[in-house]
Amino acid sequence: MIEIKDDVTTATDLEISFLSVKTAPNTHKTKALKLPEKYDSVYRLLQKDRLDALDLTNAELGDDLTVKFCLELPRKKVRSAKLIRNKLTDNGLGRILPYLANLITLNLSQNSLTELSVDLLLSNLGQLPQLKNLILSQNRIKERSVRQKLK
User: Fold this and answer.
1) Residue closest to 66 by CA, chosen among 121, 107, 124
2) Could you give the count of Cα atoms lying within 13 Å of 98 in the half-sphere of its Cβ?
3) In sequence order, which residues have a C-beta less than 8 Å from that of residue 136 and are 6 or more positions away?
4) What is the pLDDT of residues 103-137, one digit of tens each?
5) Which of 86, 58, 130, 3 is nearest to 95 (CA)?
6) Does pTM surpass 0.85?
7) Which of 3, 33, 114, 142 lies deepest, with the highest CB count within 10 Å?
């Protein structure tokens, strides 16, 4: 069952928040696939399974580097991931979804996600059995069209 309450949409026990939906900045720049130095230590801790929560807020990693981090998640104890402002696109979300099965909380705010990502997430809820909180604020999601799809 999917229901809408003010700015919160829930599907069964999953809470999806669309707090303030705005257009994300243009992200058409290409970067070499090299992890920024300040995130090397986070990546090493993730590989050694020493993180309960992965916080990559403001890392602006883009799809490829975000995928690199998420590839480590299935074998780790991480239950919360903040991928806020990472220039993640619909394509990138599709690539990381298979690796998010153990997450309870996923924050994808301030990326470049559209209604396609909402469709992708809703159609793949079975692959995300632990997910209880999903935050999608400040993306390119048109809340009105998403509300129509959820009715």
Assistant:
1) 107
2) 5
3) 16, 17, 18, 108, 109, 113, 117, 118
4) 999 999 999 999 999 999 999 999 999 999 999 99
5) 86
6) no
7) 114
Domain ranges of the chain: 2-23+54-150
Instruction: Record the tokens describing residue 30, joined without a space.
Output: 């290409």
* Residue 69 near residue 43, CB atoms below 8 Å: yes
What 8-state DSSP symbol labels residue 89? -
**Residue 72 DSSP label:** T
Contact 11, 125 (CB under 8 A): yes
The helix (H) or strand (E) run that includes residue 116 is: helix 115-123
Of 5, 23, 20, nearest to 150 (Cα)? 5
Task: Classify 2-23+54-150 by CATH class.
Answer: alpha beta
Residues facing residue 107 across a β-bridge: 82, 135
